[in-house]
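Task 17 of the worksheet. Students: predict the tertiary structure of the chain below and write it out as structure tokens. Keep your answer in the requested format; marks are given for formatting as well as content.
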Amino acid sequence: MERIFFDNNATTKLSEAARSAIFDSYKTPLNSSSIHSFGREANKIYNQTKNEIINLLNAKNYQIIFTSGGTEANNLSIFGLPNYQIITSGLEHPSIYDPAIKRKAIITKVNSNGIIDMEDLKEKIDNINTPNFLVSIMLANNETGAIQPIKEIAKLVHAKNGLIHSDLAQGIGKIEIDLEDLNIDIAGISAHKFGGPQGVGALLARVGIDLEPIILGGGQEGGKRAGTTNISGIAGLGAACQNASARIKKNQNLIELRNYLETSLKTIGGNNIIVLSETTQRLPNTSLIATKGISNQIQLIDFDLNGIAVSIGSACSSGRAKPSRVLQAMNIDDTLIKSTIRISLGTDNNKTEIDKFIEVWSKLYKRIHN
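Model answer:
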């Protein structure tokens, strides 16, 4: 049975360019801390990848700290500013939300479309009782695909002399991102979300922002992140960044497929189908669809038996029994949450695969509703 992968917000297929870069780096014992010719070769890859990140995100005025992935980058953004009050939302990835709660964060409201309540955020910023605060709001949500008004949020934050952090993991390779235009102070990226390898990412912090390290034991990354530098992973990240612009164009072409999928399901299911965050700006590849009367567990199993991979939320939390925190923050009813699946398309997906999905879903729907 041919398998179909519709879970690209969880991870993406390693690109040929990234695979080649990784394998090439493994041909030589490379450690960027060494001062001999092998070390210089490692540093060449290291610096080339930094340049690729700078070019992709317009990050000339940012220090780049390589990490083990988006989770570490996000943790560093929260724990690296220990004297700052944190403001965040219930929409955030667990790698932001959990450490933020540990830091006694203020949680701002969101609306039913999964967008930050700007009036509530402004009120919380106005009422803050410390000059040092960090607002952490992700650029695009991994479950709904909803894109936040980061530029407007940054204006609110900077008007009160605060810092803004944004988790960019879901946006890179799907939409254009310009750090200077968005006016973000700190940002996190993850290679495997856009064709790079798992286990590598980066934190970007505007020059002058002093983050305290959370991993100690060496002087790597300017003293901000100890540990032998993952040169092979960084090589793969660089290749993924180099191909990200072409990937964005392919992702934009997925809008037509995504809309075809959603329209087809609504034609079959009528009022029993709800597309969450449908009326707001979304990532081009993401559909979060609730089917009244059919649990997401039943849907997930049925699709898996038919060779189709979808998810019921964040890959970092979907194994848990409790309902999605993101959808709860949006005040979605628990019954509806438990009937919701996420379809996140990739650049290799096509209409034939969408038609197969519709066929499988239609048979399940008719078995239960007819």
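Marker's comment: The mean pLDDT is 95. Residues 16-247 form a domain with the Aspartate Aminotransferase; domain 2 fold (CATH 3.40.640.10).
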